[in-house]
Design brief:
Blueprint lengths: L5 E5 L14 H14 L8 H31 L12 H32 L2 E4 L6 H15 L6 E3 L13 E8 L6 E8 L6 E4 L4 E5 H7 L1 H4 L4 E12 L12 H12 L4 E7 L4 H10 L6 E5 L9 H4 L17 H5 L4 H7 L2 E5 L5 H12 L3 E8 L7 H11 L3 E6 L7 H13 L3 E3 L6 E2 L2 E9 L2 E9 L11 E8 L2 H16 L10 E3 L3 H17 L5 E6 L5 H13 L2 E6 L16 E6 L4 E2 L2 E5 L11 E5 L5 H5 L1 E7 L3 H17 L4 E4 L5 E4 L8 H7 L17 H7 L1
Parallel strand pairs: 2-7, 9-10, 12-13, 13-14, 15-26, 18-23, 20-21, 21-22
Antiparallel strand pairs: 1-28, 3-5, 4-5, 4-8, 6-7, 8-9, 11-18, 12-16, 16-17, 17-18, 19-26, 20-24, 22-27, 24-25, 25-26, 27-28
């Protein structure tokens, strides 16, 4: 499929031109976050949704510094200058990242200026103290005196008062003041507690907000009575937040509880100062935080772009996407809500968020309450703070069923929440397993064993996304339900591998990493190469979050030059260079960024037919094509054999991704992403699935129905 013509280009960082066979991973990630930021300027989105994209770009950039940049800085400080796969040393990467991140931060500020102006025209304003009316000013002063003064703790900086510890993500103010008692200059730091919202809503019908830093600045006379201000600034701290796993850690729980405390005190990686912060105060902060090696940034606008997300929560529905109510699969409704009966009748694929994640919750709730269910086994990578999944597992254990939960403690930024879930599950008798010390368990698998007559039947759920009810509302993922005995036997071996380190031999359906997934993927690509060389149709369609693995990239290059047609939909990082003569001539790469976050992983191999075709081998998986997924994580790839589900995944989901031209960007061989032009046939992937039901979940309503003609016409 050929991409539509472009109308807008996102330039690649200058360093990518030096890369011979791959793009730099970090630069590719920054390019992805730029695409997210571009949506903040997309007039097709409502204003508060544009602000949400801006906030997300800020959160993304923060986490990038806390993890990826922190790792590179560690290498640099330890004198490691070994080039990465793309040929750049840590020092070269850090220099390129600093330039690109500063440019990105500048664009974020410009986006905020534009959005704040447009939002003000629609009745939502972020104001300064000078814009307050008299009644508002009186209310704010009273609120500050009663609500904020008891919380804030100014700290003088002098030999007897060392610089205070500022936790990761901490936002603080610093002042140079004249002390009225002796006329001497004193430096004061005021930390803003993380529990305090960044914006204060002024009472009234109008949505008027003032930031907490402006509120403090307007009431220094209450905070420092009699003091005279001579200089001020604001700063924000980002620290190294990666947690290293000790290979000989005998108690992962104890290790993570300790590591989470240390995360707050990690090395300062980035310091962001407000514009105009006096040099002497900036030096004081850098020295006080031992931030000699930190990347310093000066913001000419709002510090902490991620905090703008608070404004998105304002009840202004006309400035947001129209509400969407996901469908519950009709096939299950046809069986009176009996998930087991529906799955027993036929495999079901559920497409989130267009079809409700509630079906997964219902599956486990039914298992918990069904007296014939004897056992439940469940992986948990991310489950969220309000988890109906956890509640269902607790109910099952309390009902006397055998429940096993594989809780992944190494899920970055969810470690603390997962520790809490693990403790709750253990208290009710769930057998909690923490998996491998050196590998993350990233596979999304649930299995329910049920007594049916004289036998036991196992029902399985395999997903591409997490068992997370909140993110399931905005992430596109696939849930596959089956009562296949082969799948059941393989799922049991997967859980035994994680809990008892029993090697999963003789797998009948699944392919697992780190035992065999890389080899299976290579063999599938090799089969397409052989077909191309034999003159048969040869093609690969794949959808994933990231493509980084060097071996897979080289194998795709080999396939391209053998004549295999390759179309890749990669939302985030892509280190492969497409469309380069003699290397990747037949490879096309696109990225989709829109209302929902594309998260599902799908692989399709033509097997001698022209895609899409029922002969193709189709897989869904929890794994991206990255070294960590193929070599250092427990992942699962599931072949789709049921004809209806096969058609839904390949002819419907994959085709729709490939032909989308409203939310898509195309990558070229120089690292530039170009927004595609709709042309005569405009097609919005997310809008399509919001208005067109899936195939396998519709039951008799769509029995025998084929792929919608619209998709086939546009897919050509």
């Amino acid at each position: 499929m050929n991409a539509p013509t472009d109308i807008k280009r996102s330039k690649a960082p200058a360093s990518s031109a030096k890369v011979v066979r791959t793009f730099n991973r970090e630069m590719s990630w920054l390019a992805f976050n730029r695409r997210v930021l571009e949506e903040a300027a997309n007039p097709a989105h409502p204003l508060l949704e544009r602000l949400r994209f801006l906030s997300i770009s800020g959160t993304n950039l923060d986490e990038f510094f806390m993890v990826r940049v922190a790792g590179l800085k560690e290498q640099q400080l330890e004198g490691v200058e070994q080039p990465s796969y793309d040929g750049l040393t840590p020092t070269q990467q850090l220099a390129a990242i600093s330039r690109e991140a500063d440019a990105l931060a500048g664009e974020q500020q410009r986006a905020w200026l534009e959005l704040s102006r447009l939002l003000a025209e629609q009745g939502l304003s972020a104001i300064t103290p000078a814009e307050l009316e008299d009644e508002e000013r009186a209310w704010l002063r009273d609120w500050f005196a009663k609500q904020m003064l008891p919380i804030l703790t100014p700290q003088a900086i002098d030999p007897s008062h060392p610089f205070p510890f500022i936790p990761n993500g901490g936002f603080s103010l610093i002042f140079a003041m004249i002390d009225p008692s002796d006329g001497e200059t004193v430096d004061e730091v005021v930390m803003i507690p993380a529990s305090i919202p960044r914006f204060i809503r002024i009472p009234g019908e109008r949505a008027r907000f003032i930031s907490i830093d402006w509120a403090v600045a307007a009431h220094l006379d209450l905070l420092f009575p009699g003091f005279r201000l001579i200089g001020a600034g604001a700063f924000r701290v980002l620290r190294d937040s990666d947690i290293e796993i000790e290979e000989d850690a005998e108690d992962l729980v104890r290790h993570f509880r300790s590591a989470l405390k240390e995360r707050r005190r990690g090395r300062v990686i980035r310091l962001e100062f407000s514009a105009g912060t006096p040099d002497d105060l900036e030096r004081l902060v850098r020295s006080g935080l031992d931030a000699e090696h930190a990347i310093i940034a000066e913001s000419g606008g709002f510090i902490g772009i991620a905090d703008l997300g608070q404004l998105v929560e304002e009840e202004l529905p006309e400035l947001k996407f129209p509400p969407y109510q996901p469908r519950f699969p009709e096939r299950i409704a046809e069986h009176g809500g009996d998930c087991f009966a529906a799955i027993r009748a036929k495999d079901i694929l559920v497409h989130h968020p267009y079809e409700s994640f509630e079906v997964v919750v219902a599956f486990l709730r039914q298992a918990a309450s069904d007296p014939d269910v004897v056992a439940i086994k469940q992986t948990l990578y991310r489950a969220g703070k309000q988890s109906a999944i956890i509640d269902a597992l607790v109910a099952a254990a309390e009902a006397g069923k055998s429940v096993t939960a594989v809780v992944e403690l190494k899920a970055r930024f969810d470690e603390e929440q997962n520790l809490l879930w693990a403790s709750r599950l253990e208290r009710v008798g769930v057998q909690v397993v923490y998996g491998f010390v050196e590998w993350k368990t990233h596979a999304k698998v649930s299995m329910v064993v049920r007594r049916e007559g004289e036998m036991f039947r196992t029902y399985c759920h395999f997903g591409t996304g997490n068992y997370h009810p909140t993110t399931a509302k905005v992430y596109t993922d696939l849930s596959f339900f089956t009562a296949s005995r082969r799948a059941a036997r393989d799922a049991a071996k997967l859980f035994n591998y994680i809990s008892g380190y029993v090697p999963p031999k003789g797998l009948e359906l699944l392919t697992l990493s780190p035992r065999g997934l890389r080899e299976r993927l290579t063999a599938l690509i090799d089969a397409e190469i052989a077909n191309a060389r034999a003159g048969k149709p040869a093609a690969i369609w794949a959808k994933m979050n990231s493509l980084v693995d060097g071996q897979v990239i080289e194998k795709l290059y080999e396939a391209s030059e053998a004549g295999v047609s390759i179309d890749l939909v990669i939302r985030g990082i892509c280190c492969l260079r497409p469309g380069v003569a003699g290397m990747s001539t037949n490879i096309r790469v696109k990225s989709i960024v829109g209302r929902f976050l594309e998260h599902s992983r799908i692989w399709a191999f033509a097997c001698g037919a022209r895609l899409p075709h029922r002969k193709a081998r189709v897989f869904i998986s929890s794994a991206d094509w990255m070294p960590r997924n193929l070599d250092r994580r427990v992942e699962a790839a599931v072949p789709i054999e049921n004809p209806t589900v096969h058609a839904q995944v390949l002819d419907q989901v994959m085709v729709a991704n490939l032909i989308d031209n409203q939310q898509s960007w195309v990558l070229d061989g120089d690292g530039n992403y170009t927004r595609v032009k709709p042309g005569k046939k405009s097609f919005n992937l997310h809008q399509y699935f919001m208005t067109n039901p899936s195939l396998s979940g519709r039951g008799q309503a769509l029995e025998g129905r084929k792929v919608p003609k619209l998709l086939l016409d546009q897919g050509g």
